[in-house]
Amino acid sequence: MYKKILVPLDGSDRSTKALSHTVELALKLGSQITLMHVVPSLPPYVNTAVDRLGQAQQSIIDELMRNGKEMLQQYASSISDKGIEVKTFTVMGQPADEIIEKAIKENYDLIVIGSRGLGEIKGYLMGSVSNRVSRHAVCPVLIIR
């Protein structure tokens, strides 16, 4: 049924709950899981000719990518004794778009994602990643509160 499960993680309590739920599902169903972290894209500088700003932005991106990879490794290590096949993937972009694209390209059977981390009003106005993923994904999406 759900042989390949994608789990987007951002380090929040809700994403950690999503991982716990996924581990239980994977154990019961014999699923392989992929832990995914999306580093949100930084806005481009207006004047890219200013080398220092470009270097500073690249330094920030490198640090965010490194932190994301370390976070996923910690999550993977925390479940390594469960006998579940676990992969990790870190990318930079718009979170909902990257999650949807990954699920489509690699034929995931299920996405398990934590519910919104934004406040209710901000989330209502802007929309949340989990909301966008659930509306546009081609596979089932399980949203964990």
UniProtKB/TrEMBL annotation:
Q: Pfam families given for it?
A: Usp
* UspA domain segment(s): 1-145
Cite the entry's keywords alphabetically: Cytoplasm
Subcellular compartments: Cytoplasm
Single GO cellular component annotation? Answer: cytoplasm
The family database entries (InterPro entries) matched by this protein are listed as:
Rossmann-like_a/b/a_fold (IPR014729), Universal_stress_UspA (IPR006015), UspA (IPR006016)
Tell me the protein family, please. Answer: Belongs to the universal stress protein A family.
Q: What is this protein called?
A: Universal stress protein
- The species is Desulforamulus aeronauticus DSM 10349
Give the lineage.
Bacteria, Bacillati, Bacillota, Clostridia, Eubacteriales
